[in-house]
From TrEMBL:
Protein name, as recorded: Phospholipase/carboxylesterase
Gene source species: Pararhizobium capsulatum DSM 1112
Signal peptide range: none
Classification via InterPro entries: AB_hydrolase_fold, Extradiol_RC_dioxygenase, Glyas_Bleomycin-R_OHBP_Dase, Glyas_Fos-R_dOase_dom, PLipase/COase/thioEstase, VOC_core
Span of domain VOC: 17-142, 164-280
Tree of life domain: Bacteria
Length: 529
């Protein structure tokens, strides 16, 4: 039986309610297009992840990035899909004016976004839709919240625009315990209930629906899931006080962090959902006047910031010029330089790495090239490779044949889809990736005209009699690399087939670094100049 209490239209003077909600996205461009382009939110912050500098973190919100309006995304570009289940939030909800339901239904139809509803939930009209990763997003008609800081994107009228977060739904097998934590520590109170849902409300007016998910499967982290809910704290002292309280109750698994834009604590409630307790201050505007206009790398990462930046996925805001992504058989990443010269550097990683691994070296080697980096499709103990190996020095010949054929077809599609200039294309590979390039030159001759092979060997047992005339190859070998004894045979093989080969041995092992980037840059410069 539904029991509901109406929330008055008021502005609570105290700090309470939701600070932000964080989700995990698989494709950054689709995410930006949905939350900025369709929903009309403002991109208020773009940073590298505070735990992982190679992970992009985006915040969307109202015009000033107010706590309570913020939804953030950890971008696991091309990452594994998660599973929604108990121990995790399952839905997020945004507040829109009650009379704007029709506007949003029409807008969703125009954007080709499927909706369900409107339906009444706790006395409020609700339409449901899904974001590009399948997360359920609710647009809830309510007049609880002020329109003072609504973002005007020039397309969604301010009268119909999203006001802020309305709330979230949590799936839990321990609904009473989950509810008790939220009401005791974060200032919520019980508002209404159905047979399956307990609705909680904060003094700020936002809601948390605690749904009994007993018998449902457990959640699994990954793209298309909600990572955590952050609640608002008055100040650092309140955050530290909660940590002390939890420690006194026997919970020593909490973690406190300074996230620059807020100071916060992470904890898990008994049902498994991750909560954060975050201060309003110093806020999103602490490091830029025009919110969302710059990419920031957290200060505690003291390494090569240019290398960190190039590993983050790029995107364009609605209306900006963009490089539209294509669906290809190989997962891949593009990185555009600030001043492109029309050349392209194709990157193939080593065993167990990914499509981001060679981007820093690639950018140093080719500052003005489009970087096109691929992820191998074969696996060894769960780690990507371009083809399987049988022993450290012998390889699956059938896998090589099929993968080089797929690689050649992929590059043919990429040339057309991305408008690449084949005459200004260089293939750079490391270890297994270098061996993949070697095998492709021999088994699929014609489209690789220039190659840089780092720590390479010939992976083929049967050598085709092909003409490699006109192909230029740079081989860089580490003097103490276990594969170094195989490098002369590779050089001779390519020379015998007509390729032009420059072979260099450096003081290194199997690892690669700045010395390789410098040699590659000089070799490329002498040919592109």
């Amino acid at each position: 039986m539904l029991q509901a209490t109406e929330i008055s239209d008021r502005q609570a003077p105290m700090t309470s309610g939701i600070h932000h909600i964080t989700l995990i996205a698989r494709k950054v461009q689709a995410n930006v297009d949905f939350y900025v382009g369709f929903l009309g939110l403002k991109l208020v912050k773009r940073t590298a992840g505070f735990e992982d500098a190679a992970q992009l973190h985006l915040f969307y919100g109202d015009a000033i990035g107010s706590p309570g309006s913020l939804v953030s995304f950890l971008v696991w570009e091309d990452g594994a899909q998660g599973r929604v289940g108990h121990g995790q939030p399952s839905e997020i909800a945004f507040a829109i004016p009650s009379e704007s339901i029709g506007f949003w239904l029409t807008r969703a139809l125009r954007f080709g976004i499927a909706t369900s509803g409107p339906a009444q939930e706790f006395g409020e009209p609700v339409i449901r839709l899904k974001d590009p990763d399948g997360v359920i997003v609710k647009l809830v008609g309510t007049d609880v919240f002020s329109s003072k800081h609504v973002f005007d994107n020039g397309e969604v009228p301010k009268s119909d625009a999203i006001r802020r977060l309305r709330g979230a739904t949590i799936l839990t097998e321990k609904p009473s315990e989950t509810t008790e934590v939220i009401t005791r520590h974060f200032g919520y109170r019980e508002l209404a209930a159905t047979d399956a849902i307990q609705r909680l409300v904060s003094d700020s007016g936002d809601i948390i629906d605690v749904r009994n998910a007993g018998g449902f499967w457990t959640a699994a982290p990954g793209t298309g899931t909600i990572d955590h809910i952050a609640f608002r704290a008055v100040d650092k002292a309140e955050v530290k006080a909660l940590k002390d309280t939890l420690a006194a109750e026997g919970d020593d698994q909490t973690a406190v962090h300074d996230r620059k834009y807020f100071f916060s604590l992470y904890m898990r409630e008994p049902g498994g959902t991750l909560f954060e307790f975050a201060t309003d201050a110093p806020g999103m505007a602490v490091d830029e006047e025009t919110l969302g206009s710059h990419l920031f790398i957290p200060a505690h990462f003291t390494g090569d910031r240019e290398a960190m930046t190039v590993m983050l996925p790029q995107f364009a805001l609605p209306g900006e010029e963009r490089f539209a992504a294509r669906e290809l058989p190989f997962v891949h990443r593009l990185n555009q330089p600030d001043e492109p010269d029309g050349s392209t550097l194709i990157l193939l990683h080593g065993s167990g790495a990914s499509e981001t691994s060679l981007l820093p070296l690639g950018r140093k080697a080719a500052p003005h090239s489009l970087l096109f980096s691929l992820r191998g499709r074969s696996t060894e103990e769960g780690a990507p490779r371009f083809f399987r190996r049988l022993t450290p020095f012998t390889f699956d010949q059938a896998d090589i044949a099929s993968e080089t054929e797929a690689f050649a077809a992929t590059m043919e599609d990429a040339d057309v889809g991305y408008g690449l200039d084949a005459a200004r294309m260089t293939f750079l590979g490391y270890s297994n990736g270098a061996n993949m390039i070697t095998a492709t030159m021999l088994l699929q001759p014609g489209f690789i005209r220039r190659a840089i092979l780092l720590r390479a060997m010939n992976p083929l047992t049967k050598l085709p009699d092909v003409d490699l005339s006109g192909i230029e190859v740079l081989i860089v070998t580490g003097a103490t690399d276990p594969y170094a004894p195989h490098a002369p045979a590779l050089e001779n093989l390519l020379l015998e087939r007509g390729a032009t080969v420059e072979a260099i041995t450096i003081s290194a092992g199997h690892e690669i670094g700045d010395a390789d980037a410098k040699i590659a840059a000089e070799w490329l410069s002498s040919r592109n100049g």
